[in-house]
């Protein structure tokens, strides 16, 4: 990922570029946005900078959009950058004789859907969407640990739902799925030891297998204790259960927020690519 977050907008329409530039700038002021009107300008930019997202139209004045994508994929800095095709014609096309289209084009966006959905789509993918609240499902039986963790969440304005046992969590998720058609929770944090016969590992396995919520649909952060000097962290058990990441107690605010941001970004990127 580039040290400075950059977005490249390629569109032959001056008005479309200006509107998109302004709306994204207003909502993501720290994002460096470069707007180009043609393929020549775009290639100059992609050879010089690394971008997190490139959006391009198909009808450019000097090159076909798909030919431009093929050239971008051949540059060292942006060969793996997410590229969105924004066009009235969103039928997938093969890019290059030896390239998989799924490797060349990350996602297609119908221009007829309008600017605001496109802006939401881009910011969702970047993990900087500021309209949807972050919703955390937190499972922990320890009063001390709960006080520390919920204090951090509340201090940072993060909405959370706290439970002490696995059965209540499963029921909550079932109701959430029934009401929304998908999981509305961004991240689940769970301790290993719960107020039930089911431990954290088993809870995660139930969520993954029975509720069929995978790593993208519901990222999970497992809380564990710091291993003793004669012990080792059981990575096989942690990740084998279906955990995205783990954090050791006592939990620090900066570490928790960093891990949550990473997991929320995973969820947002999945939503952007699978609306």
User: Quick one: how many beta strands?
Assistant: 10
What structural category characterises the helix and strand content?
alpha/beta
The helix fraction, in percent, is 40-55%
Tally of helical segments: 10
**How would a textbook summarize the main sheet?**
5 strands, parallel
User: Can you tell me the CATH class of the largest domain?
Assistant: Alpha Beta
Please outline the helices and strands.
Elements: E1 6-10, H1 14-27, E2 32-36, H2 39-48, E3 53-56, H3 65-73, E4 82-87, H4 101-104, E5 107-110, H5 115-126, E6 135-139, H6 143-155, E7 159-163, H7 166-180, E8 187-191, H8 200-209, E9 220-225, H9 235-240, E10 245-249, H10 253-273
Parallel strand pairs: 1-2, 1-3, 3-4, 4-5, 6-7, 6-8, 8-9, 9-10
Could you characterize what this model shows?
The chain is an alpha/beta fold. The protein is built from ten helices and ten strands. The protein has helices at residues 14-27, 39-48, 65-73, 101-104, 115-126, 143-155, 166-180, 200-209, 235-240, 253-273, and strands at residues 6-10, 32-36, 53-56, 82-87, 107-110, 135-139, 159-163, 187-191, 220-225, 245-249.
């Amino acid at each position: 990922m580039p040290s400075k977050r950059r977005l490249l907008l390629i569109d032959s329409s001056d008005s479309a570029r200006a509107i998109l530039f302004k709306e994204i700038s207003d909502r993501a002021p720290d994002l460096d946005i470069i707007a180009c009107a043609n393929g020549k300008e775009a290639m100059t930019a992609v050879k010089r900078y690394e971008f997190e997202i490139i959006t391009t139209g198909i009808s450019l004045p000097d090159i076909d959009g798909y030919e431009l994508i093929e050239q971008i994929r051949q540059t060292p800095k942006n060969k793996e950058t997410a590229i969105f095709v924004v066009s009235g014609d969103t039928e997938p096309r093969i890019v290059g004789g030896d390239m998989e289209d799924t490797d060349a084009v990350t996602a297609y966006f119908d221009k007829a859907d309008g600017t605001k959905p496109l802006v939401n789509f881009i910011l969702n993918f970047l993990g900087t969407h500021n309209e949807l609240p972050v919703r955390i499902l937190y499972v922990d039986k320890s009063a001390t640990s709960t006080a520390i963790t919920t204090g951090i969440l509340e201090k940072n304005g993060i909405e959370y739902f706290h439970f002490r046992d696995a059965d209540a969590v499963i029921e909550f998720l079932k109701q959430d799925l029934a009401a929304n058609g998908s999981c509305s929770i961004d991240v689940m944090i769970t301790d290993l030891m719960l107020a039930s016969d089911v431990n954290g590992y088993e809870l995660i396995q139930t969520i993954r297998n029975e509720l069929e919520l995978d790593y993208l649909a519901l990222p999970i952060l497992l809380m564990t204790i710091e291993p003793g000097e004669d012990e080792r962290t059981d990575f096989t058990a942690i990740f084998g259960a279906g955990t995205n990441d783990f954090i050791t107690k006592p939990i620090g605010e900066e570490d928790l927020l960093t891990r949550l941001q990473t997991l929320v970004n995973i969820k947002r990127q999945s939503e952007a690519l699978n609306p």
